[in-house]
Specification:
Blueprint (H helix, E strand, L loop, with lengths): L3 E3 L9 E2 L3 E4 L2 E4 L8 E4 L2 E4 L2 E15 L13 E3 L4 E4 L2 H7 L4 E4 L9 E15 L4 E5 L2 E5 L12
Parallel strand pairs: 1-7
Antiparallel strand pairs: 2-11, 3-4, 5-6, 7-8, 7-11, 9-10, 12-13
């Protein structure tokens, strides 16, 4: 398993909490078991996972979404995500929050205090997945966004 782990105590803005299932060509798999090279099912088809970054946060403010809070089996089970994790919404919330039929909305903007709550979680392990380009994948039955992989530039002195 290839992960870039750190023990940062700063808030992570995007990511999925350990235990969240992601749809892959091999079936649903917990995010913590994904590896570089796995083929993940996205809205655009199967895509190769390019990078997995895991961060353990001693305490973290996360958005906790109750089962079926976003629609039938969306999510399939209670789940937590980082506050700025993009969630693709295609219901009345998109119209109410963005004035359009569908939109990507940060999880924290969906908080209603009851079914979608911002909670402090102790010992959270958060995973950020990267692909060649921005993708929408299925996590616990919810469409979530992932950013493209970043490439570090190398400067060569002349």
């Amino acid at each position: 398993m290839t992960h870039n782990a750190s023990d940062r105590t700063t808030a992570l803005t995007e990511g999925l909490v350990a235990g969240t299932t992601v749809l892959t060509l091999a079936g649903e798999m917990a995010v913590e078991y994904l590896s570089v090279g796995d083929r993940i099912i996205t809205r655009a088809g199967a895509r190769v996972l390019r990078s997995v970054h895991s961060t353990v946060l001693p305490t973290a403010k996360l958005v906790c979404i109750s089962a079926s809070a976003l629609g039938v089996d969306q999510p399939a089970a209670d789940m937590c995500v980082a506050p700025d994790q993009g969630i693709h919404i295609r219901d009345w919330r998109a119209k109410a929050l963005k004035g359009v039929a569908q939109a990507v909305i940060a999880a924290k903007e969906l908080a209603d205090g009851e079914y979608i709550r911002i909670e402090t979680v102790v010992g959270a392990c958060v995973y950020r997945l990267e692909f060649d380009q921005a993708e929408v994948l299925y996590a616990n039955g919810v469409e979530v966004t992932c950013t493209p992989a970043t490439v570090a530039a190398t400067v060569i002195a002349a």
